[in-house]
Design goal:
By secondary structure, the protein is of the alpha+beta class. It folds into 2 domains: 105 residues, no CATH class; 86 residues. It is 37% helix and 14% strand. The longest helix has 19 residues. It is globular and about 60 Å long.
């Protein structure tokens, strides 16, 4: 599910899936992209080769670990076409599809007439410490409900309170400092004490 096609079992290592509250972070482009990067980095540390790490994203790293000392980027083609390879059809072609995607992205202007636009921004992923509604979050962070829904498509039911531990993507306005919203700057005092904690700052380019 989602832009990175996470299976539920593998997604649970990095993402929240809460069927009781109708939340599935696999459908969040921002959260799932961050999770995919973490999975890729994990695969690279296990396999010590970027090519194998790409293949492991589709195949899983388990069956590739025993090949890591014999395969590297110089002979990965031979490995992919070997009759002893543990890869099925999809995983065998995954690396070449990845290279084709890189080529299409790099030359998108010449191939498709689509110029690369580099409008960047920053978002924060905030973890809620207590149950809270999206209306309260919108008020506390001074953002519209439309923006909140746009950046959090994984939160399907806006009518019920989000459970403690829910991660919410908060867009940062141009020129706004990368700190918690004013209501949270001093979490030791005031009525909003301890409502949320900042988790990550993520810069994105669209």
């Amino acid at each position: 599910m989602g832009v990175w096609q996470f299976l539920e079992k593998s997604a649970l290592e990095y993402l929240i899936i809460d069927r009781d509250h109708d939340i599935d972070e696999r459908t969040s482009p921002i959260k799932s992209t961050y999770a995919a990067a973490k999975m890729f980095l994990r695969n690279y540390h296990l396999l010590r080769d970027y090519g194998l790490a790409v293949i492991a994203y589709n195949h899983g790293p388990k069956n590739l670990v025993r090949y890591r000392d014999r395969v590297n980027s110089k002979n990965i083609g031979k490995f992919l076409h070997s009759k002893h390879s543990p890869l099925g059809f999809a995983s065998r072609n995954y690396y070449s599809e990845f290279l084709a995607l890189l080529h299409a992205e790099r030359y998108r202007d010449e191939l498709f007439g689509i110029a690369l636009q580099t409008k960047s921004g920053v978002v924060s992923i905030v973890r809620m410490k207590h149950p809270i509604s999206i209306f309260e979050i919108a008020t506390l962070y001074n953002i519209s409900l439309h923006e909140l829904r746009l950046f959090n498509p994984d939160i399907f039911d806006a009518k019920r309170k989000l459970p403690a531990g829910t991660r919410v993507v908060i867009p940062r306005k141009v020129g706004e400092s990368l700190v918690e919203a004013p209501q949270f700057q001093n979490q030791n005092t005031g009525p909003n004490r301890g409502i949320a904690s900042e988790v990550e700052f993520i810069e994105y380019v669209q």
